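Changelog excerpt

This revision adds worked examples to the README so contributors can see how folded entries look when concatenated. The first example is reproduced verbatim below.
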Amino acid sequence: MMFSGKRGVVMGFASVQSIAWRISEALLMSGAEVGFACQGEMQAERCRDVLAKEGFGGCPVWSCDVENDEEIESLFRSVGEEWGEIDFVVHALAFTDREELKNLYIETTRENFEKTLSVSAYSFTRIAYESSKVMKDGGSLLTLSYVGSNRVVHGYNVMGVAKAALEASVRYLAFDLGGRGIRVNAMSSGPMKTIAGRGVGNSRFIYRWQGRHSIMKRNMTSSDVGGSALYLLSDLSKGVTGEVHYVDGGYHMVGSVVP
């Protein structure tokens, strides 16, 4: 129970197939108190239903539109009022227009570019700012990236640009918060069978290709992802900040273009 007595917020729950849930489940099973912040009340209700079915119905759930700075501020004010201080935040938020992913990156519209970067990258910066007000010294912020940030992944397009901005944000935030003992890292898993993953063109082919060509010759599992997240959020990694932690069996080391 390495997280006994620790509290934190997971942002971006979508379903029990999501990486956010796999991390949350690992945290809950390790003794953490976890609150969930969802993008809109409909998503929050879905999260409450899942938590009740999984036996974690006592977890607090909030609604927060991450494109609204006032709602982010209000969220962490509520967190502070309920818990006083927290130890960690998991940012598992990303958005883009799936229809535009069917096109070439060069065809990305300004509107979708701005919204994609706002939700997928800038939101982490604002969340770091507000959550750090109620975070203990020695706390940890974790966001989710993907190999498309530094390799061309067919069909990933503007999301790759957003993940590159997110990874750069991790380094600058780590510098800004390091003096307070707050660590900031990203975790980049290989292709996984999630709702978000299915939105990427050729996702089934990429998943099979990953299993054959990663250095470990297999796809990553939910326990691989959950275990790495626990490491980055716990005191075991208290000397690690500003890093992108790969959980992909060595997938990121193969080539500059991913089929």
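The second example, added in the same revision:
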Amino acid sequence: MRKKLRRKFIVLATFSVFVILLTVIGLSNIIINLDTDKEMDTIASLIIKNEGRMPLNNSLNENKEELTVEIRYGIRYFSAYTDLNGNVKTINNEHVATVNNTEISNFAQRLVRYGVEKGKIKIDENRYYYRIKKMNNEYLIVFVDGTSRYAFAKGVGVYTTIVALASVFFFSLVIIFLSSIVIKPFEENVENQRQFITNAGHELKTPLAVISANAEVLEMTQGKNEWTGSILNQVKRLSGLVNDLIMMSKISEGKNIEMARFDYSKEAGIVCESFKSIAVNEKKKYNYEIEDGLELNGNQKMLSELINIFLDNAFKYCDPDGSVELMLKSRTRHKGIRLTVSNTYKEGEKVDYTKFFQRFYRQDESHNSKKAGYGIGLSMAETIVKGHKGRICVGYKNGMITFEVLLNK
């Protein structure tokens, strides 16, 4: 239990930090790239306003503080004029050395043909931001070299990612070191609850036994009547509840569970046979299919009780003149056993199946249901399955509620 809690806490805490850092890094990189695009667009617009050349004064610069004279001298760019069909008329490549006139002509023609006003292109290993403007019967296309700026943005993304991963790693080490301290109060609380249930259960057994004995003495001396009968029924009911709670507590603790290999098919057949009379009395269809020779390692009594719980629940909540089905088969792709129990239930669509395995949960919220039981059966079934490292689930389809259990052999 302790290891499981620590593992969950470490995984959830580390995952939460990872998601937060990933979100921060992602947003930071998006902002940097958008800022780079904005800067490139400002430069390209400035060159277009100056008819294809970078102005060396501030007459056309609306953002004087962003583009100083020194910065403008360091900007690498080229431009071209084309006719409306994309044929290049003039080229200005004085401020770039890596692109020749043929390449400029090809890119200019392609961009005019695409008709996209602005964007980014890659020439060899260099990245350029371009902008197109229609002027009378011709196009002016400006290319601004943003290689260094985009490389800087990429580098920031790489380094921040490395820092984030390293941070997650060191955070995990800290969490692993502190996890036992963090979960200790919760672990103690759970342990106290279990101990309370066990102790209270044992303490209740004595007064229940005394009440039962007194009621039986009254019946012997004064004869049976409805009052003594009611007392004995309630004592029996409370005794069953106490025993189930103690069993659930022991299973959760992982103690006193005797495991042995046995024929589960045989045990399932015995339990299923015992429900035939109930099906006949309640006039319900009852079918079960059990594969022969299914053996597993587990607690025979608990796993037999598991089938008893599901069938008892199925008959209680089955529609009048409905049907109950049970199947016990081996899993084809895994070395395990699949148990399914289904019953017809027309009102099943309105049921909250997420609460089915809660202790004392009843669909009848008033808890005045005429159906026998005390709402702990399915919770006990879940505890038994988890105690055997299996999986349990419930669902509703085609008018039937189906419980499915997967157990390892």
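Reviewer comment on example two: The chain has nine helices and twelve strands. Residues 21 and 27 are 10 Å apart (CA to CA).
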